[in-house]
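Q: My collaborator sent me two sequences in one message, no labels, and asked for predicted structures for both. Can we handle them in order? The first one she listed is below.
A: Yes, handling them in the order given. First sequence, followed by its structure tokens:
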Amino acid sequence: MKTGPDYCRNMLVVGVLALTTPLMGCSRQTDSRSTPQAASDHKPAASGAHGDTHAPTSSPNAASAPYDLQFIDTMISHHQGAVSMADMAAMKASRPELKTFALEIVADQNREISQMTKWREQWYPAAPPAVNMDFPGMMGSMQGMNMGHMNSMSGKDFDRMFVDMMIPHHEGAIVMARDAIGRAEHSDLKNLSQEIIFKQQGEISRMSQWAAEWR
């Protein structure tokens, strides 16, 4: 059997690599959020997380999927962007009214994500992701997101940037919801779309007032 300092040193390296390899594999996993996703192994999570300026991309063959499935997966992805921004605002905003508002967005949109996820499982079990960035209102409202820049802000500058980013994001959701009212097959989706329009129009009005006051 080989002995000596070189052999022992080599065996030590092998042992360290064996111990650290599983940990390295874990570090590649993306951090999980509490946001519900779509069914089982076919989640519609958009490629290109919302932590930088890159918009997510469409799922392969998304445009050939049923319209309602495309709407569900695309709106879930869109809502996840809003939840990411609102989670940050709940922690970093300097104004208490904005913190409260951000928590309302997180609760409302997580609830809607959960409902859409249930419908997806009922109507399109095991269907592959169908995020479609060509949906009306989708691309423009996602391209303006810059979570890294927003995270670098603080105080009143953060508050202003949050409303400046969330207003067009909401406007994109409203455009998408209006499209669904005319095109969706399921009445549940039409009703949800009407709720999204009503709710987010009210939130845009509130944020627009803040944006004017906080300049």
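Q: And the one she listed second?
A: Here it is, processed independently of the first:
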Amino acid sequence: MAIYRFILLALSASVLLLTTTPSHAAFTESVGVVTVRPGVTQSYLILTPEKPVATVILFAGYGGFLDITKWGIQQPSRNFLVRSRDLFAKRNFITVVIDTPSDFSSVDGILGLRATKTHAQDIQKVITKLRQTTDVPLWLVGTSRGTISVANAAARLQENGPDGIVLTATVVEAGGRNSGYVGDVDLEKIRVPTLIVHHDEDDCVVCDFHTAQQLPSKIKNASRIEFVAVSGGKQAQSRSCGPLSEHGFFGIEKTVIDRIAAWITQP
């Protein structure tokens, strides 16, 4: 395990393209809706560059609820991945920000349900649809409790799963409210390339840095794995588990995403 420090990543699944409006000279922004279960849909925001090199599906923390409609994200979020989505798109990644399924459309969203088989199968429907439009590698990227969703999907989806995963600010300790942690996932079943990024001053009680350093020994069957420790950033403007702190890579977003992008695209 290498540690680097940087100053500072058999139902139809039909998609309805709801909007296609330019959001930046380098990419377009649209919204998709996938049918994942009877009467249940999964919405996502998608940023599409002209010449994509890979696809990343981004999973926000806490309950993951963003209330994505045809007008975009309606639930304000300062989550690290959500606020940094343009940075991925500008690096020529098809960037997908995923919402909770329609049967969990509340502030708490899928809190406590991220490690379930059903959740992984819902994600698989999105993966299947995205792969119908492009043949570039597809990765899942999660932050905070979003890392549970990502690890769970990688462990359960041995077929038609992601090509690789990235865990940032991983939840490595069980928290309250039955909210789950990566220990709920059979991590030994993860076989795809795995990058783990953690701030060495993350003070979030469920994201202990030293415990996170042990993850490579638990995800021991991944075809390639690396733990990256990052440092620095701006003075926190939120609590220790909040998005504008070391936990949310506040002030080093670009550096962290550059590192993630380089790792995903390396030969």
